[in-house]
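Structure in, sequence out. Go:
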């Protein structure tokens, strides 16, 4: 019975702690964006930039991306597109712009990580002050390139822009798609701001990433990790150069319109997140102990917070266990704790919706979030069976 008591206590308190940590991130993130203080750019001469764009069958979107990038570059910058195993007209589209093309054909090593590694090896002898990675379906908002470049040189570490994934304007979207956009706003906008307030690194999101030249040239990119951006960010945290969040630089893209493509994309992201989390938590804990630093440990706790839908599912399961524990032992401590932190988290998400999400989902649609979470059960069931382990191109 003692072993059972300790096991239940550990699992329920861990759930409470992760929910509280997420609540803290959200509250601090909301305060960050509601602050009236002006977050000025470093007073630097604009650094020289190499923009690296990996592109695999991106003929439908690459032109818009290149236009937005080239509008912000100058004669001292370089734009490099890695035409990676393309079977469509990506190369033809790229040839219409003032960008260097690198053709890569390697059907055995298929992933964005391998494409980036290929590009870096080809340009390593033509250095600039920093390298900025932009996905081939992303648009740079005003001055994003300059902000990222200055911030990377000033902080001498990776910089992550505010990356927003939106539904296509004018497109008829399901409630599930709208809630997905709202969920990414929490993940990519609010939570990193909370981490910044705490003085902690953020995660890299795969696009809108700026690096001092030498730091990325030395990085290990040649891998087929499903979330290669997350792994790269963890590598920098372990090296003591964790990524810094810069929300003044904004990069945006759109969700695919094909429902199966959306599900495939979510499955890949979430399976990759969970697999990476399980793989790197021990390394981050050991790094924290070796360096006597709380930074890797607190970053590790952030990594340990599962995707929001899975966290809610875990919370519901934990509440069920706590109710059973109450009935068996007449001890209601855990159900009170879980109820309190659950209420706090719900309240914080409502505040996010009020301040940042009302243009995405209506008040009535907001209360469909439980249905969105229920629809994700299929993704998590695959973790115990047909887990996604391969990098797959998202259908547009």
């Amino acid at each position: 019975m003692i072993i059972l008591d300790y096991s239940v206590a550990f699992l329920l308190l861990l759930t409470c702690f992760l929910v509280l940590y997420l609540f803290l991130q959200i509250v601090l993130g909301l305060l960050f964006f509601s602050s009236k203080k002006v977050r000025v750019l470093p007073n630097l001469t604009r650094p020289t930039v190499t923009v690296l764009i990996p592109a695999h069958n991106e003929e439908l979107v690459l032109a818009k991306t290149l236009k937005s990038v080239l509008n912000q570059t100058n004669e001292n910058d370089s734009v490099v597109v890695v035409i990676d195993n393309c079977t469509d007209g990506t190369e033809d589209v790229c040839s219409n712009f003032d960008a260097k093309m690198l053709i890569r054909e390697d059907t055995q090593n298929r992933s964005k990580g391998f494409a980036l590694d290929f590009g870096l090896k080809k340009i390593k002898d033509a250095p600039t002050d920093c390298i900025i990675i932009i996905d081939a379906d992303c648009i740079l908002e005003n001055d994003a390139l300059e902000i990222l470049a200055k911030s990377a040189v000033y902080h001498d570490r990776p910089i992550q822009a505010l990356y927003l994934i939106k539904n296509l304007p004018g497109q008829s979207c399901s409630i599930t798609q709208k809630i997905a956009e709202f969920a990414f706003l929490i993940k990519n906008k609010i939570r990193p701001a909370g981490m910044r307030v705490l003085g902690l690194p953020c995660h890299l999101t795969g696009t809108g990433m700026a690096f001092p030249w030498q730091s990325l040239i030395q990085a290990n990119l040649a891998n087929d990790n499903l979330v290669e951006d997350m792994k790269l960010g963890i590598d920098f945290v372990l090296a003591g150069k964790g990524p810094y969040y810069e929300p003044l630089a904004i990069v945006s893209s759109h969700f695919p319109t094909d429902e199966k493509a959306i599900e495939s994309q979510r499955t890949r992201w979430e399976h990759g997140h969970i697999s990476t989390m399980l793989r790197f938590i021990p390394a981050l804990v050991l790094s924290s102990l070796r360096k006597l630093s709380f930074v890797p440990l607190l970053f590790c706790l952030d990594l340990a917070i599962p995707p929001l839908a899975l966290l809610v599912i875990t919370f519901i399961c934990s509440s069920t266990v706590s109710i059973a524990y109450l009935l068996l032992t007449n001890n209601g401590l855990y159900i009170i704790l879980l109820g309190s932190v659950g209420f706090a988290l719900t309240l914080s998400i409502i505040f996010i919706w009020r301040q940042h999400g009302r243009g995405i989902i209506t008040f009535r649609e907001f209360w469909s979030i439980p249905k969105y979470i229920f629809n994700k059960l299929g993704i998590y069931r695959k973790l115990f069976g047909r887990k996604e382990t391969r990098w797959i191109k998202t259908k547009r």
